[in-house]
Amino acid sequence: MHVFFRGLLSLFKGMKITWYYLVHPSTVVTQQYPENRATLKLADRVRAQLAFNYDENGFHKCTSCHICEEACPNASIHVIDRPKPAIAKNELDHFIWRLDSCTFCNLCVLVCPFQVLKMNPTFESSVFDQRLLVYNLTTYAGATGPVLMKQPDAEARNKLIEPRSVYDGPTALEGYHLAGIPPGLYEPTSTTGVPK
Amino acid sequence: MEITGMTAATMSNTEVPVSSLDERIKFFQNEPQSALATQEYFVNMGPQHPSTHGVLRLVLKMDGETVREIIPVLGYVHRGMEKKAEYIGYRQQVHLTDRLDYLCALMNNWVMADAVERAMKIELNDRILTLRTIFAELQRIQSHQLWWGVFGMDLGAFTPFLYGFRDREKITAIFEDTMGARLTMNYIQPGGLMYDIHPEFPRKVKDFLKYFKPILNEYDELFTGNVIVHQRLKGIGILDGKTAISVGASGPVLRASGVSYDLRKSDPYGVYSKTQFEVPVGTTGDCWDRYIVRMQEMRESIRIVEQLIDNIPEGPTMVMKFGAKIRIPEGIYYNQMETARGILGVMLVADGTEKPYRLHFRTPNFNNLWSVISMAKGLRLADLVAILSSVDIVVPDIDR
To answer: How many domains does chain B have?
Structure first.
């Protein structure tokens, strides 16, 4: 008989904890996610989206050396360079990054000798179609920032570069819009190279 | 659960009429039914059963409610990780080990990184080793927290699940600060660590330990003392030490059977030799012992972290050049460590290039799964659920 009461007591002991949390609203840990967007702050190092580092003039430092492509474990990065007519070296044309197969292992960021790449903590990257997850990260095709800054003025610089948008080049979209998706929704924001 | 057994009617020699439904109903109504005759039948448990923790499929030979035989069917999450390693480099392979046993991602990283470091004869400084040990122990606590929650849910109590996840969230937040990821961190790299720790890391860990110590007593009050838990676990799924060794079980499953074998003690790596901790050992090897051993391990892990967190040595966190490819000298290398579930070993056959000639993982869950077979024979189906949960199976580790 005393086993029965001891068992009953253990049940009440457990219930005591449950009731304690019920009547103490300060212990609630649930985050109301879509509503708390304004106050939600993720850690700086969170890896959610690959992006280019741009300097104050909007130029990057990528020399298209393909080291990130080599380090990528599952070929999520495809660097396409274009021959430079004046100098023998090549320069960056498209930087294709596949979010759909990326595992966010961060190796591309770490092996980059010029710190071109970074991982952004912007985690809301859902889209309407899987094909929209193949991005071109560079905003322009052309030489690196230090090379371009040697040019005398902005006009001479603009002659050397060509603008590129997020879905330019050998992405799944190739610059076109998908049927059923309003145009303008995935227009590139010019500074970050990440769709809005 | 889908029953694939045959009824008595289909087993008998009389042919079942196929012409019309009415005739068939009539046939089965007239079939003489013996109340005493029983027949063994097969039941598929999984691959989508919630308490098999993933896509594990067990074909059970049942006699009523009693389990007569268990045949595990594997391969539902096989990703060819070991074969893949022959095509991607050593550095890239580390990020795949995250996906072996995803609850011990850091320890898996460490095994692989350490194997490469030993092959390359790289000497690590104390800062790297201390931080790796702290992270491994935090991960062990985190893994056991999740196990505790899921264990409760498998036994029919939903509350522990919420409590376990609530406290696990605090550790994942600490990990997120330093590593930028919560589950598949890829943080421990050959040659050191990916980043230095977050400046607030020691304070946050101390806060967590202060918070979590009383919480463990709360766990005990809520779940360990519960009479239903005692009834469900005591004397269920007994695994004796001899069988445990013969099937190659390791980790808490082995230690609950009374075999005190922990690589952290018997073959210390990291800075475990500088720390004081006990290896909890069970006596009978039933589900209750496995439960108590894991609860005790959490307390010991807290002890280890407490000893290390106050005096993290200074120094660089990466001692070799971070290149895309790593080349290790020709030879065969084996390295093993104690993860939260047991011994994870990695065997490397290197041919001097940047890719391994052959790579093999000796994963703890694969061997622990075979101990379930000897444990559950003759018990009820509901006991099998408790046994599977007490062994703490993670299926991607079995299939890899």
So the answer is: 1
